[in-house]
């Protein structure tokens, strides 16, 4: 019959945070090794795609690594993907252009109104 192993920590239940791997020691004894949870990739906040160039770590491990592992050299680097940043830039540019067009149209209408009021006053 196979040798039994027991948990080495206080939690006696088979939960996600209490997973073990059974390992045979050089003395031939089976021992339980606690396995850490696997880290998930950092995702883009807008579209949810995994971000390239950012280390895959557990949340507390990010405190121990340097800034180069947590970001990329771009606006919103480490938070948004390149495509979403490009979309944001284009959207902001188009909104500004739209504002300028509205302003120009408004000025043209005011000029037309002034010219039409001058013509009617001359008659």
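-> sequence recovered:
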């Amino acid at each position: 019959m196979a040798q039994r192993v027991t948990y080495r920590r206080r939690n006696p239940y088979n939960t996600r945070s209490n997973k073990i791997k059974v390992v045979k020691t050089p003395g031939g004894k089976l021992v339980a090794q606690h396995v850490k949870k696997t880290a998930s990739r950092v995702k883009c906040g807008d579209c949810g795609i995994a971000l390239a160039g950012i280390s895959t770590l557990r949340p507390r491990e990010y405190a121990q690594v340097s800034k180069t592992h947590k970001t990329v050299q771009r606006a919103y680097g480490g938070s948004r993907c390149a495509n979403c940043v490009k979309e944001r830039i284009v959207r902001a540019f188009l909104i500004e252009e739209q504002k300028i067009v509205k302003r120009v149209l408004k000025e043209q209408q005011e000029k037309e109104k002034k010219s039409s009021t001058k013509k009617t006053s001359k008659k």
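The first helix runs from residue 82 to 122.
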